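User: Hey, my collaborator sent me this sequence without any context and asked if I could get a structure. I don't really work with proteins. Can you help?
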Amino acid sequence: MYEGCSTALVTPMNENSNIDYDNLRKLVEFQIENGVNGILAVGTTGESGTLDWEEHENVIEFINEHTGDKCITIGGTGSNCSEEAMEATEHADEIGVEAVLLVEPYYNGPSSLEIRKEYIAPIAEEFPDLGVIPYVIPGRSGTQLNPQDLAVLAKKYDNIQAVKEASGDLENIRTTRELCGEDFHILSGDDGRTFNMLTSKDISASGAISVVSNVAPGTIQEMIEAVHSGDMERALDLRDSLKPLTELVTVTSKEETPHGESLCRARNPLPFKTLMNILGMGVGPCRPPLGKMTSKGLEKVLEKAREVHRENPEILEPVEDFFSVDLDKRLYEERYWRGLSYD
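Assistant: No problem. I've predicted the 3D structure and written it out in structure-token form, which is a compact way to encode the shape of the chain:
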């Protein structure tokens, strides 16, 4: 169930920051047409932090209805409140999603033991027929589920057979493989490390939950399949052709203020929503406190998109075809990105 590419889908908004379900349907159809294994609804990329719980449930249900049996739906039901996560997971189970993603409880900082005992284990026990995927991302959560506690969960609960790994620590991931066994599914949650996680024999990732696949789903899926089939020459070519896009998950620029230079980090999903709007995919703005790119940041997005379109046009060709857009115009005519930056 977990092998291949699952897309951490953005949540499209209209100009009033309301969820745009018409464009959400189009995004789901685009993913399915390009052969993804699954779609993650309302993860970090889907702006889970600024959707209320009713919106969470509505988006998960909408995506699940439109995926049908064409790909799996993973519901982002994690929270820093175990009761909220339990209630959201109950809804996901009722509507028939295949799995849920439980991000580590952010900000309040439980220990790894507490994450296991007070958060993941109760949910896995309550919903034994629902896949439960812990999400290790200490850079966002401020805490971490350790491989040792993950292994306890994986060996106790049959429905915990995968982890989304975005710790950025390859030794940590190797320990996960060693402790959880060869049949456990490690999913890359970091596009920049996906290839290494797939090809490292002591990690052997099954696939990825990808941000980049919002615009290049077929290419990510093909790269994963190439690695698994042993076609390393093709896999390397695809990795290299995707590199400019992986560099856009976070965009850093140095900005001048009246008090000196300041480092600005535009983090996911802002750079990719900006890119998707330039490409004509109609995803709209992020919800505050996420805002806009700086002009320097926007220029980096344009630079990388142009590089891909120039060097490997086949990667973005599905976007052109599905959304009926002309990237030769959209990537070079200012009217298509006017208003997407602060200055």
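In plain terms: The beta strands are 4-8, 38-41, 72-76, 99-103, 131-136, 162-165, 185-188, 207-210, 250-257, 260-267. You can pass these tokens on to your collaborator as they are.
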